[in-house]
Design a protein that fits this description.
Layout lengths: L1 H12 L18 H13 L7 E5 L1 H4 L3 H4 L5 E5 L5 H6 L1 H4 L7 E5 L2 H5 L4 H18 L4 E5 L11 H16 L4 E4 L2 H4 L20 H11 L20
Parallel strand pairs: 1-2, 1-3, 3-4, 4-5
Helix pairs in contact: 8-9
Length: about 240
């Protein structure tokens, strides 16, 4: 009996034979309140169809999209701390109702920080694409590469591997796009540029978002007049 318990404990600590990290339950329910708030916003003031939906983690949630893309009808559906699988799980409620012509995703940062492997995160991106395509076959999907940051610099090698895998997938499909923000976020010394980050060294400053907007903008397609700003974009 003791040997069996010991075997179970050791097995839980060792990565699976296929190189995947140990599976752990994912708590989608923790986001239910945030998703419900988005749905309530839509009931009060429905955003336009055929716009650009931004979805993902806090780097999206904190982004003033109207300021960065005044000529586009943008919808912010970022919820801080989320992973790619969260955006996939809630795609039917977060993305599909808006029938966007472009979906922009930024996530993967938190995923790696919580122990997922590069290959797993790339696989999660493929699942996201499949979920969106199943309901929105004509929508273009843009992935913003995982950013190098001061706070998570030790993970940069794994982030680069993840970016390479996702970039490779995007290169095979003309309706997908990979936006590499890393070159503009690293200084001559090869390290993250401090001025592009907030005081926590993880989230972006206004200058950081300006860098992102410059690189993402060309992938949004033909500019369309955005509606008047909504009371709030993004949910904590």
């Amino acid at each position: 009996m003791r040997l069996r318990i010991l075997f179970v404990l050791i097995s839980a600590m060792v990565p699976a034979a296929d190189g995947r990290s140990a599976e752990r339950p994912h708590d989608f329910a923790r986001w239910e309140r945030a998703i419900a708030r988005f749905e309530e916003q839509d009931r009060i003031s429905a955003p336009p169809k055929e716009g650009v939906v931004f979805v993902g983690s806090s780097s999206v949630r904190l982004w003033d999209l109207a300021r960065s893309f005044p000529d586009h009808a943008t919808i912010n559906r970022g919820f801080g701390g989320s992973e790619i699988v969260d955006s996939t799980h809630f795609a039917e409620r977060l993305i599909v109702p808006h029938e966007p012509r472009v979906v922009v995703l930024y996530a993967g940062d938190n995923d790696l920080a919580r122990g997922r492997l590069a290959e797993e995160v790339a696989g999660d991106f493929r699942e996201f694409v499949r979920a969106v395509r199943a309901r929105l076959p004509k929508s273009r999907i843009v992935f913003i590469g995982i950013k190098p940051s001061i706070a998570r610099w030790k993970q940069w090698e794994t982030m680069q591997r993840t970016n390479q895998l996702i970039r490779s997938d995007c290169a095979k499909d003309e309706s997908l796009a990979f936006v590499d923000v890393a070159p503009a976020m690293l200084g001559d010394d090869g390290l993250p540029r401090p001025e592009l980050f907030a005081s926590d060294g993880l989230h972006l400053s206004g200058m950081g978002y300006a860098v992102w907007a410059e690189r993402v903008g060309p992938h949004l397609g033909r500019p369309v007049q955005a509606p008047a700003p909504r009371p709030s974009e993004g949910v904590d």
